[in-house]
Amino acid sequence: MKTFFTRWSIRNPVITVALYIGVLILSVLTLIVIPVRMMPYVQSPLVAVITRTPGSSPMEVETYISKPIEQRMTVLDGVRFVRSSSQQDLSLVTLQFAWGGDINKAVRDVQSVMKSAEGDLPMDGINTRSYWVLPIDPLNRPVLTLAFKAEGWDRVKLREFADNTLVDRLTSVQDVQSVFITGGYRRQLQVIVDRQKLAAYGLSILQVRDAIDNNNVSKGAGVLTQGEEEILVRADDRALNAQVVRNYPILEMDGQIVYVRDVAEVRDTYEERRSAYRYNGESALAVNVIQKPDSSSPQVIARVRKELEKIESQYPGLEFEEAYDNSFLVELIKDSTTGELLISVALAGLVILLFLEDFRATAIVMISIPTTLALSMLPFIPSSMSLNSSTLVGMMMAIGKLVDDSIIVIDSIDRKLKEDKTPRQAAIQGTGEVFLASAAASLVMIAALMPTILSGGLTGLMFAGLILPMVFAFIASLLVSITLIPLLAAFFLKPIGETQGNRKTWLQWLLTPFRLGFEALEKGYGWLLDICLKNREITLAIATATIVLAFALYPLVPQEMMPLGDSGQFMATIELEAGASFERTNQVAQQFESILLEQPEIEKVSSNVGFEMTRNSTYFSGYSMGSVNTASAIVTLKDLNERNRDIWQIMDGVEAEARRTIPGLRRIAIKEMGVDVMATSAAPIQIAVYGEDLDVLYPLAEKVLKIAEDTPGLVMAHTSSSLSQPEYKLEIDRRRAQELGLNIEQVAEQARYALNGGFTRKYYNRPNLRQNDILVRYHQSDRAYGQNLAATYITTPNGQQVPLSTVATLKREFGPTLIEHINGKRVVYVNGYYRKSSPASMDLSMAIAMRAGEELDFPPGYGLDSMGDMTDMMIEFDRLLKGLIVSIILIYLILVIQFGSFIQPLVMMLSIPLQLIGVFGALLLAKQTLSTVSILGIIILSGISVSAAILLLELILTKRQEGVPRAEAIRQAGPVRLKAIFMTTLTTMIVIVRLAFYPETGMDAYSPIATVILGGLTVSTLLTLIVIPIVYTLVDDITQGLAMFKRRRSPKSVTELQ
Q: Which residues are listed as membrane-spanning (predicted)?
């Protein structure tokens, strides 16, 4: 059975070769059709409920919108967190479900709950707009942002063209999920009411609004049948344009109809600007394109470019510039990893040539590696995988094992050839001899990796893209090693008699120094083994000391969720003090953009000022939404090789210059845009200060902020909100209002329209165009400013107009800019960032939380929790460590099955703790952190280390079964396996050394995996070669001693029974 596949492939060489040629063709087709992405797509578990409440303060939004929704959401199963953010005009309630769950079902469940919650909300159709329920997906962000301008176009019509024609055309492109527009001037119908004319007719502004709603109608009136003809009857008086609205009747008065035109001017104009977009400092519209999750970024962007060419040819004067192009980074990462992969294969071939000194044998191995990689790609499409940085790194990590399988088989076949076997016999017997060891090593690697995926959670989903290619490669490698390699060896390797005898080839002459050096190493290894066998106690003491030292080093290694990476892009956000107008924010944003553009390393700046709620977007990422006093920019840097500073030096320089030159900044946050699923703009360090009374809570948060600012390594610390929002509280005289026939609601509603205006219940609809708002408000000269309430009027039920000041006064106060909840508790977040050279996120979070707990006196019901990366890290570290334990158990059980013993596998398992000193030492020397990526490296390393121990101990046991004494068996097996172990170790190290120390752009996030394997493999290989044989002798002594003890007690037991 061990040689069935080998015999079949050698007997059927044409079929075997044809099958592998077919594999190569299919792999090429796979590369053509497989989606290409920057990172594997992982569905976010977040669902948001967004509700617009124009004119409402954060306190009102919290009380009447956010809290009722939160309370309703408690009935849902599987909700991990319920967060809410209540700010002026807007409520955002965010629910976090389990990673890997059915997010579509979660959205449907939330929608169902919201249907029942509608009765709890003040849905009056005017000041509370309909809510949206949508998934929050930080990864489903725009893959392309276009700066859209046009020569000779009216700016309002240009925005309308973008909102309608452009969105429709680009959305129809294959694999485009949605397109949304920001910036520019959005069309709006404004009904500007003249207060004097309104007073002359004894009308209120609300009557004007109601008249528009009552007339803005389009309804079917039935079907009229005339003989053989049916005619549809419709009542259609929609607000198609300003002229139609002007002619809407309000009421009849003394036989005369009062129309809207009699009391108001109707303007077809644009909304009051609350947002703007600029690209490299020039105003434009932002056209944001989001792709479907399972599509390829470069392909989608290429299709969009083709469609843009058609649009430009049909509409002269349009101009599109690519402000942000995701495919650039995708292609850069793909080219980097592909290049690394090719270099790795070439270097692996060089190592093999050094050791084997045979072009034919080296050629066979070099053919097997790309063939194995091609075979491993075939399951990608059935597994719904994409080609991304993770899959390519996974394939690169697997090369060492592929070389290992090939070398073991080639080395075994070479030994059989030296025993005067024919190439065919040598191929069959040599492959059969190592098949079980190779299969066990492959199973060990698979057993080490699969629990990480099966454990679920974020890490299981995040690392599936890296682990599955490795698993596929291990299975493919085993198949190739028992079919293709023996087939090629049987036909291309020559028997000893047909070679040049004792004469050396030019290659062997060339490699003589290396061969002599390695032979000296083998002798030295044999000498060292002899010494260690004679001094077993000292050897074990040294091994124990390394394990103890490893655990002593562990607390010194910084810890974080995901390592920081220089992807060549970062996001910058600034926030002005509360109350800053859009005009002020826009001015400051221009100053900030100038600072960015002055940096020689910066290539593109795509900035958004203020906030605009998009109507046709599936994109939203974050726990709060922007406001009129914020601005953000996505910044693209030049290639890493073309700049003198790394991304963190550039970010710190920009921050310092902005703080020095721009007054009135409440916060500035700049964070690199990573290449992993955790790559969002959210702060990695987040301390949630909780409590009920805002007057107590905010001072506590400020004290925690002070501690955070004093913590070395933390940068850009800030609180999520403050008690600095200027407000006017309208205090209504109830008695006076009642005397005028008004209630509180009537006064408040008329005051809202008097101060700001309001929207009609129905939209401004035109054929084949998206809807726009109809705004009803007083003329600017009639609207109240400051405390001048006498400047505006409200209407009593009898038509009398009275100054608002007769029934109300305004009181200036300061309220919260934002009110946030988590699981029903009010919180203020203290946020911060860190840099690659500073202490890691977990250390900083713990330092702040511990110091705050010691120094601050929290009243009952108040306290703090570490959130941000800390929360996810504790959960995912626990999940990964459990996966590691399961992996170790599975590896042990596989070895028990292979060796038929519960004792011998324990010897091989010792290689796992022996690697830890190298792991933690390498992380400290490289100034890297223990992260989820590092732990994955430890899991991969565990499989590699045990595989080396299997090779060594398996040969020792084989020699013992052949009757060789124990000490001699160890002396013989050690040097024989030294070459195979060294070749595998050296190949693996050469493959990953560039990734560890010289990662390409976007690849440094995976650098800790390479560092862990490099350090751990170096130490574990050296210790395994010495310690495993010594421990084996001790275990063997104990086993023999127990056996002798049982034999001695056996006769006595029999006698006692008699």
A: 12-34, 338-356, 363-381, 393-413, 434-454, 466-493, 538-557, 880-899, 906-926, 932-957, 978-997, 1009-1035
